[in-house]
Each structure stands twice: as C-alpha cells, then as structure tokens.
Design goal:
The structure is a single chain. By secondary structure, the chain is mainly alpha-helical. It has one domain. 91% of the residues lie in helices and 0% in strands. It has two helices and no strands.
C-alpha cells in the first residue's frame, strides 16, 4: 500500500460524508449565509447612499451658511454705513442748532444792549433836562408854569442838538 493513495473504502466513505455535509450545507447553511451576506450588502449600500445624501446636504448647508454669512457681512456694512451717515446728520444738525442758538443769543444780546443804550440815553436826557431846567431857573430866576411843558420844551431842544 502506497501512503499517497487512499484506500477505496475510505475514499468511498469520505466522498459520501462530504456529499452529505455538502447537501446539508447547501440545503440549510448556504441560504442563511447568502441571506446574511445579501442583507449586509444592502445595509452597506443604504449606508453609502445615506452618507452620500448626508454629504450633499452638508455641502448645501455649508453653501447656504456661506451665503448667509456673506449676506450678514453685507448687511453689517450697510448698517455701519447708515449709522455713519446718521452720525454725520446728527452732528451737522447739532452744529446747525448750536450755530442758530449762538446767533439767537447774539441777537438777544444786541437787543438787550440796544435797550440798555436807549434807557441810558433816556436817563441822560432826563438828567440833561433836569440840569438844563436848574440852570435855566437860576439864569432866569423863575420857574415856568408846569413841569410837563418844561420837559417837553427841553426834550425838543435836546433833540435838535
């Protein structure tokens, strides 16, 4: 007997046991394994499809986020520009109001000075009239008939000067 060539009886039982095991595996084992492999394949395919969709959504969300950021920056620039314009307008209005107020105060001061000047002139005229009457009384030696007539006459004489 050759150790490399098996005995025909042993070969028969090996083939028969292999056939039974293969038949049982083909009948009960392979369908379960194939089903598990197919399910795993479908799970992987759906996972890949979901990942692809998630990547697409992420890309669109990222693009939308960049667009919103650009819009926000543009709005920020607009708001800053309008705030600067508003600031300039408010400063100009305040300057105009201050200038107007200063002009009004100057005008009021002029009017006040003019009124004081008029009062001072009136006081001076009255004082001059009184002095003129006193001088005239001393020079003439007698009083005129009534004070109203005297004052009127003196004021007319002062206005002529």
């Amino acid at each position: 007997m050759n150790p490399l060539i098996p005995d025909p009886g042993l070969l028969f039982w090996m083939v028969l046991s292999f056939g039974v095991v293969f038949f049982l595996l083909a009948k009960f084992g392979f369908p379960v394994i194939v089903k598990a492999i197919n399910e795993r394949k479908e799970f992987i395919e759906t996972s890949l499809l979901s990942a692809k969709q998630a990547n697409e959504r992420l890309a669109s969300i990222q693009a939308e986020g960049e667009k919103l950021l650009a819009d926000a920056k543009a709005q920020q620039k607009d708001i800053i520009a309008s705030a600067m314009q508003e600031k300039q307008r408010i400063v100009q209005a305040a300057q105009d109001e201050a200038q107007e107020s200063a002009q009004q105060m100057i005008e009021e001061a002029r009017q006040s000075i003019q009124a004081e000047k008029e009062r001072a002139l009136q006081d001076v005229r009255k004082e001059v009239a009184t002095l003129a009457l006193d001088i005239a009384e001393k020079v003439i030696g007698e009083r005129m008939k009534d004070d109203a007539t005297q004052r009127k006459t003196i004021e007319q004489l002062i206005d002529k000067l």
